[in-house]
Amino acid sequence: MTLFAGMPGSSGSIEVVCGPMFSGKTEELIRRVKRAQIARQKVQIFKPAIDNRYHDTEVVSHSSLSIEATPVNSSIEILQKVYDSTRVVGIDEVQFFDESISIVVEKLARRGIRVIMAGLDQDYMGKSFGPMANLLAIADNVTKIQAICTVCGAPASKTFRKDPKNTNQVLVGETDLYEARCRAHADFFGEDQDQLAFFVNLNESRSKTQNL
Ligand SMILES: [Zn+2]
Questions:
Q1: Which positions does UniProt annotate for ATP binding (predicted)?
Q2: How far is the CA of 187 from the centre of ligand 1 (A)?
Q3: Which one of the listed residues 27, 93, 99, 106 is annotated catalytic?
């Protein structure tokens, strides 16, 4: 593989498909991977061992498209399991991986591999999920997909957890636990707390500018 490094047209790439739950991220990952297979490129798919919602060794989308996937316990394991002949690496539910995932995908891309990842960009609190902020920064191509808000039918970018008492960031589940919501209906903290936080930030940045 190093033989081709630096040759035109052989450079790898990093793609991220992200959005809330029920937005069709996994379907998009499967679509890209299947096109690569049609082009006779060797493909390997990985997913975190934590996500066993449907099947242990397959990536399955909500619309039950599926493709074979290798469950791994850490990002380094991906590096160890990619064959020399592999041209495309797909990673599903990438938000569940450790921070080293960005180093791993950069290494793969440098080896000329096209890396396609799908994952939740935000957790149920609307904050960047695990390694996602960094992955979005290093990606060559980012596709954000929206779902449909279950309350009003508007495009939805947020994942809403139905039981607010459960504060575990990693809670694997389906429609029984989560809904897609638009910004207005996600309402994570309530208006009052939002405004308070905004003013605190504003005052902080004012005092910083005065000190300059
Ligand atoms: Zn809404």
A1: 19-26, 92-95
A2: 10
A3: 93
